[in-house]
Amino acid sequence: MSADAATVVEVLPFDGGGRVYSYAVPEALRGKILPGQLVRVPLGRASRLGVVWPTVSEGAGRFQEISRIRPIQQLCRETPVLSADLPRLATWIARYYAASLNSVLETVLPVVVRQGVRVAVEKKLGVLRRLDAVELEALRRRAPRQAALYDFLARQTGAVDRSGTLRQLSVGAAACAALVERGIVGENTGQLYRDAYDDELGGGELAAATPPVLNSAQQGALDAVLGALSARRFHSHLLHGVTGSGKTEVYLGAIRSVVAQGGSAIFLVPEVALTPQTVGRLRQRLADSGTRVVVWHSHLSAGERFDAWMAMARGEARVVAGARSAVFAPVKDLRLVVVDEEHEPSYKQGETPLYHARDVAVYRASLNGAVALLGSATPSLESMSNVRSGKYGTSSLPARVDDRGMPPMRILDMRRELLHMRGPQRVLARPLVDALRLRLERREQSILFLNRRGFARMMICPDCGHVAGCAHCSLALTHHRSNQTLRCHACGHTAPVPSSCPVCHSPKFNGRGAGTQKLEAALLCVLPQARVVRLDADTMGRKNLFREVLSDFRKGKTDILLGTQMLAKGLDFPNVTLVGIVDADLSLHVPDFRAAERTFQLLVQVSGRAGRGDRAGEVFVQTFTPGAAPVQFAKRADFEGFLGDELERRREHGYPPARHLIRHLFRGRNGDKVAFGANGWVQFLEANMPPGLVEIRGPAACAVERLQDNYRWNVWYFTERVMNAVSLLCELRTRFTFPPDVSDVLDVDAVDVG
Ligand code: ADP
Ligand code: ZN
Ligand code: ZN
To answer: At CA 410, angle to CA 379 and CA 375, rounded to 5?
Structure first.
């Protein structure tokens, strides 16, 4: 068949090596093929699914002769699964982050959509009518299986999967059908699960539906954003507002305006756990506009995922809220991307492609002539430097709403406090214990923050110095007392707790350094009357636990909430008047050039959880280095001071944001080969890189040299021209051969430097 220009399209087949190929459009599909559509095409001897790619400019290398072009086999769905801007975004990500286009597309396009078939949506179960005590008792006697199912469903906060639940409870389909028959349990395939999320939002966690009257700082910030939106030109804007200053109201105002004009908006949050609260607020505030708000994050079921994606692709849903990957939402006519807590490291993806969702958001906004609105109480140095250079606009909210003060911060010097601390639980200093006791008397609540789970940080022998280490990593094992194990927090390896030192058999082999379990034990010891709940990765086994714990805390059923970093973000509890940071040094003395920035952010963010209601708050910080700059700047709530100091230090050493940093990580089972490979590569680079493009540092063994049986070495590249550097590195990389069992990966704008 003949194939002229108008009847040939470009297609990116999945698993086709990340290359774009040309295909002919058969007669029946003429005029129906659009970029972003899912199609089936022949590739070699196989048949593959792929997406129609926008035609690239002339001269971009094609892979076939016109005469060898084969026709598209099938159009799988008329609605394009990618919005018009996503192919360009994907291409940019592949180039910028040195990833294959295929791996980018796998990240952008969820697997259920990529498969091209409509998945069978799991049936869901939920309680429709609650039984009273008499009915329940009767059911228990008459039909214990039915009662078991009812009991289980009644305890859930939303609908649950039918098949999984019946299997788990060993309840037969007949028992379930009987409950459905009587109208006690609802069984649904469609609407029930979508509304499941709404149920989770109960418990008074929502802001009022009518917006508060904005204060002048909020109004000023909103006006700046609305101005940029109405110009319909690309603009990045940093909203720097202290904790509790009402940044969310500014985001909501901007989103309302976008929706009113028929555009779409994406709202990114740094943590899946924060999506229900965000979606709830959005739905309430947008209820009158009839706009559908969808959630997007990694915990959705395949069915939910498929429906949400297609609703956005069809333009039915114009607002989406979610974690990192929501930046790829296929919404139509994107006008605004909000990135809340833009400084959070969780925006950087930990596997290929190693993209940073904040930076992708900014680039995506630029493709659409849209506004990227980044917000934080502690903006990243990268964003602040973009503000200073004039790349980003900025607004600030310098005070909390309703004249609520910032909580004063008291620094407890643990070198001195330890002298007065007695007993086995030397974790909490006296002034902090007294402050906690005072809160109990006043019926106020407290949050204690310790960024290490487990009981003791390590087991160490005081006689010979032996530390119990992981068999697979160069890391100490953490002692978990609840199930008496030693555990590696990097790879999950567990070992029994030895009763004596495995080396010298000293019976004094014991734990050092406190984790959240020890803190919990210490609290029970010193404040036995307190109702304490611990929240960390070890207690998060059950799906709804996070929400339940927070909901109980909000209702005043608990006095003290203690936990790890998951408490640091976005939580708003008006009755919390005390926040204690138990070991501020944990993030400070780590081999990361951002250690000071992280510590400052942590202290400011965690203390931002105190005094958000009518009563004033107070913050205690336990540290062995009270004089450290981030501690002192946080105590004075002096962001500008910290920024000036830290930017100067980074500039001096040439670290970001002064230049871009690319990490080149080498891995392998054999440490010598890894070191040899990394050294050989650097010699090769020095001989082949044009001078002045990058500064090379290393190779050097990683801070954690062995991880999951792999030895790890780093090479660092510092550069001002990151795109050029990446493409040249990738090019040179194809010309260099590593020892066979050494692998490597480039991490552009690396966040994890360990
Ligand atoms: P941030 O995100 O800046 O920490 P939030 O947006 O969570 O702050 O706002 C803190 C609290 O103040 C919320 O409970 C919010 O409903 C309330 N709030 C925000 N703006 C106003 C306002 N203009 N008047 C009264 N209350 C407000
Ligand atoms: Zn010993
Ligand atoms: Zn390990």
So the answer is: 15
Q: Strands 393-397, 660-668: parallel, antiparallel or unpaired by DSSP? A: unpaired
Of 194, 144, 193, the C-alpha closest to 170 is 144
Q: How far apart are CA 126 and CA 184, in angstroms?
A: 9
Ligand 3 centre and the CA of 708: distance in Å? 6
Among all bound ligands, the one having the nearest atom to the CA of 477 is 3
Tell me if 560 sits within 8 A of 599, measured CB to CB: no
d(C-alpha 422, C-alpha 147), whole Å: 52
Annotate 19-67 with DSSP letters as a single string: --EEEEPPGGGTTT--TT-EEEEEETTEEEEEEEEPPPPTTSPP-S-GG
CA–CA separation, 123 and 114 (whole Å): 22
Is the Cβ–Cβ distance between 222 and 214 less than 8 Å?
A: yes
Euclidean distance between CA atoms 77 and 80, whole angstroms: 7
pLDDT value at residue 197: 42
Note whether 628 and 621 are within 8 A (CB).
Answer: no
Q: How many CB atoms lie within 10 A of CB 542?
A: 8
- Return the top range by mean pLDDT from 67-71, 221-225, 569-573: 221-225
Q: Which of 219, 249, 284 to mutate to test the pocket of ligand 1 (most atoms within 8 A of CB)?
A: 249
Which pair of tokens denotes residue 612? Answer: 């958000």
* 185 and 153 Cβ atoms separated by less than 8 Å: yes
Helix (H/G/I), strand (E/B), else coil: 380: coil
Q: Which two tokens stand for residue 495?
A: 């070992």
Helix axes 133-142, 144-155, angle to 10 degrees: 140
The answer to whether residues 749 and 656 touch, using CB atoms and an 8 Å cutoff, is yes
Rounded to an integer, what distance in angstroms lies between the CA atom of residue 658 and that of residue 649? 10
290: Cβ–Cβ under 8 A, 6 or more apart, which residues? none
3-state secondary structure of 615: coil
126 phi, psi to nearest 5 deg? -160, 155
Taking only the tens place, the pLDDT of each residue in 307-334 is 899 999 999 999 999 999 999 999 999 9
- Report the pocket of ligand 1 as residue ranges, CB < 6 Å: 207, 212-215, 218, 241, 243-249, 401-402, 572
Residue carrying the six token digits 């190693």: 354
